[in-house]
């Protein structure tokens, strides 16, 4: 059947493309000739748009925020990463209560993984703030390009088969039942390969702290494909883990003076407002189109971060 | 019958959700109010808004040195501090939620999770206190 072409199919991609195309023109203007308030205002508008597309694309705002703002705004990467963590944290805290109440996030699973990831996120944050900006920017570019590959190729399993839970998850009592509203049934779940999952979350925490990225892009595949958690429960529990891990790393950035209110506040507020629109857009736009757009934006931003770090672009 | 089945969610999880919700709401209100007061100049700031571009292109280490030379300590007074209070509340939400779990796990004699929640508070507190800072 031929799909009807809706305005909503092209308005959002076109808007985002226009924003990215217009940016070099603004960036070419000497910074000193631009009034200070232009940048926070531009940041607010950008974050509003990012918030709108992040929800239908199924990614957190942080993973879009850091490479784009770090690549195209005049702010030092330290402040961008500090703001990125707070953007991801605010989004995770906003969604957390609803996910917990609806049973789409599991606290018992989240706590041990968050403990490991939050401990390593401190090391990541301290390391990221100690390394030269060019090194971090180059590594960020590589990481973002890696995320593009993960997002492009990652398989997802709605209800992975877990034949035998591992001993660690049994000792911790990590199992449960969640109500699948789509299929109108209760689904029993349990996890396997918990030690591997713990090791992965140690790495994820390190990356989140170092680059200021919310790590939903990594949490969901780790929970779903490695530990065998149902997909929707993985997405919800990922947000809960983020709210703890990003809190820990954000404190390091705050203590190191790497949070500027003029950068972080409009970013958080813009992203939160945009995400509210994004929730409604989720019902009318083609999520696949948005996800492809986000992958293209990340590819562009990743190349820019790599180029900026190496001095090529 | 078309009624949705209510998911069975543990009281512990609901308690955690409640604390997150309160903290998130309080943090965002304080953040928005503090930012409006900051950018409208209702309270004096150490760094004038016009001179912000000189500071935001510095690294965090350079920024700390510059503000220390101006008599600050990295956490600036008055106008600059207000929006940061909102961020502090947002960042205090998760450890407070973990703290709220401790008596529940104690009553349930769930020693493993009592230790995990306690350790999580210690990890976040160590990051918040700055004791791990190299400076």
Low-confidence stretches of chain B: none
**Largest interface (C-beta under 8 Å):** A-B, 72 and 70 residues
Number of helices of chain A: 12
The radius of gyration of chain A is: 19 Å
Mean pLDDT of chain B: 87
Tell me the distance between the termini of chain B: 64 Å
Average residue-wise pLDDT of chain A:
85
Could you tell me the strand content of chain B as a percent range? under 5%
The main pleated sheet of chain A reads as:
2 strands, antiparallel
The SS-based structural class of chain A is: mainly alpha
- Dominant shape of chain B: elongated
How many separate structural domains of chain B? 1
Which value, in Å, is the CA radius of gyration of chain B? 20 Å
Question: Can you offer a commentary on this structure?
Answer:
The complex is a heterodimer of chains A (313) and B (135). With 313 residues, chain A is mostly helical. Chain A has helices at 7-28, 38-57, 61-72, 77-101, 107-130, 133-153, 167-172, 194-211, 216-226, 231-255, 261-284, 287-310; strands spanning 175-180, 185-190. In chain A, helix 1 runs antiparallel to helix 2 (38-57). Residues 1-5 of chain A have low confidence and may be disordered. Chain B has one domain. Chain B is 68% helix and 0% strand. The longest helix of chain B has 30 residues, at 11-40. The chains are: A mainly alpha (313), B mainly alpha (135). The interface between A and B is large, with 72 and 70 residues.
């Amino acid at each position: 059947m031929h799909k009807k072409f809706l305005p909503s199919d092209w308005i959002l991609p076109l808007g985002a493309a226009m924003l990215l195309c217009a940016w070099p023109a603004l960036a070419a203007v000497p910074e000193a000739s631009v009034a200070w308030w232009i940048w926070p205002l531009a940041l607010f508008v950008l974050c509003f748009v990012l918030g709108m597309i992040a929800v239908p694309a199924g990614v957190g705002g942080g993973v879009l925020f850091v490479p784009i703002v770090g690549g195209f705004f005049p702010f030092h990467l330290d402040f961008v990463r500090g703001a990125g963590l707070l953007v991801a944290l605010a989004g995770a805290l906003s969604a957390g209560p609803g996910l917990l109440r609806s049973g789409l996030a599991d606290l018992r699973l989240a706590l041990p993984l968050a403990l490991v990831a939050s401990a390593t996120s401190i090391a990541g944050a301290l390391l990221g703030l100690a390394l030269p900006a060019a090194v971090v920017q180059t590594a960020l570019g590589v990481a973002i390009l890696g995320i593009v590959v993960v997002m492009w190729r990652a398989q997802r399993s709605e209800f992975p088969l877990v034949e035998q839970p591992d001993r660690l998850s049994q000792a911790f009592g990590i199992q449960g039942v969640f109500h699948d509203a789509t299929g109108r049934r209760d689904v029993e779940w349990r996890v396997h390969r918990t030690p591997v999952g713990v090791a992965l979350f140690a790495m994820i925490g390190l990356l989140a702290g170092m680059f200021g990225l919310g790590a939903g892009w990594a949490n969901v595949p780790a929970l779903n494909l490695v530990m065998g958690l149902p997909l929707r429960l993985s997405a919800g529990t990922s947000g809960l883990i983020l709210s703890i891990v990003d809190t820990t790393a954000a404190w390091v950035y705050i203590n190191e003076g790497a949070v500027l209110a003029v950068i972080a506040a409009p970013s958080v507020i813009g992203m939160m407002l945009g995400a509210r629109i994004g929730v409604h857009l989720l019902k009318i736009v083609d999520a696949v189109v948005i996800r492809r757009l986000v992958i293209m934006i990340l590819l562009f931003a990743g190349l820019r971060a790599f180029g900026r770090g190496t001095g090529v672009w | 019958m078309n009624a949705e089945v209510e998911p069975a969610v543990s009281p512990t999880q609901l308690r955690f959700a409640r604390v997150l919700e309160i903290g998130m709401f309080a943090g965002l209100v304080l953040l928005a109010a503090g930012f409006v007061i900051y950018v409208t100049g209702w309270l004096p700031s150490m760094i004038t808004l016009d001179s912000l571009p000189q500071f935001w292109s510095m690294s965090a280490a350079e920024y700390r040195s510059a503000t220390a030379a101006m008599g600050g300590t990295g956490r600036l007074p008055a106008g600059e501090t207000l929006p940061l209070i909102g961020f502090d509340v947002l960042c205090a939400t998760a450890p407070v939620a973990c703290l709220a779990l401790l008596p529940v796990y104690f009553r349930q004699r769930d020693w493993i999770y009592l230790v995990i929640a306690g350790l999580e508070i210690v990890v976040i507190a160590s990051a918040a206190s700055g004791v791990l800072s190299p400076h």
